[in-house]
Amino acid sequence: MPGPATAMPDFVPFEIIEGDYDAAMVLLADHAMNRLPPEYGSLGLPDSAFRRHIAFDIGIEGLTRQLAAKLGVPAVLGCFSRLLIDPNRGEDDPTLIMKISDGAIIPGNYPITDQEWTRRLDTYHRPYHRAVERTIAKAGAGGRAPLVLSLHSFTPAWKGVPRPWHAAVLWDSDDRAVRPLLEMLRREEGLVIGDNQPYDGALRGDTMYRHCMTSGTPHALLEVRQDLIGDEVGIDEWAGRLAPIFAALNDDPALHEYRVFASRTGPYGS
């Protein structure tokens, strides 16, 4: 995987993969890349940090590109490392810019001025979310609510404890896409599929909350264990497994209707 030194001078915080917007499906990959704008150097970290999960979701860029190609649908990829600013956090989340991540102190993030905090929001976080908003709106322009599927990956173990799940579906309270996705994944022989594991999918201000929960847009977030998609063989296998499942979800008319569900995080707008 490329490190921060490969970043281009004209740094773009997102990439949109074009597709058939009339299909009313959008793929998202918040943590697809481990890159930094050149002016940030390496945030004071060794290059090895950018090969770890603290910098990006291992395997997700390749998986998202393959799925977008197989399904012929648009996708939005985050092009900056979560070490710079985390696009899957609300603007008021204290973990938006991490000072320490899984034992790694991030010198370039501490101390940080209010001006620099706002600069990162304006230059990277907000443009990414505007791109997501535009893409979802374009996919819904035909009158059907688009199905939004967000792709992430998780570590095989945490603090020395192995994680048994091969993949997991995270969600808040809108289960319309979640239930059939879990059912289809669990039909796959030999797979252990988590339901809101190893994390809870109800996170106020995150990408799914911001772009789907508040608008009633059908959605699901899928996490795949990183060791299973850490190379091209694994990515090919999971893209082949997920493409027909995603296509079957998208064929369901019930997953193209707007319906707002109350969030487990509390009332909207409060």
Automatic annotation (TrEMBL):
One Pfam family per UniProt: FGase
InterPro entries the UniProt entry points to: N-FG_amidohydro, UCP029730
Keyword Hydrolase assigned: yes
SUPFAM superfamilies per the UniProt record, alphabetical: Zn-dependent exopeptidases (SSF53187)
Coiled coil residues, start to end: none
UniProt protein name: Putative amidohydrolase protein
Organism expressing this protein natively: Pseudorhizobium banfieldiae
GO molecular function: hydrolase activity
Keywords carried by this UniProt record: Hydrolase
KW Hydrolase (keyword) present: yes
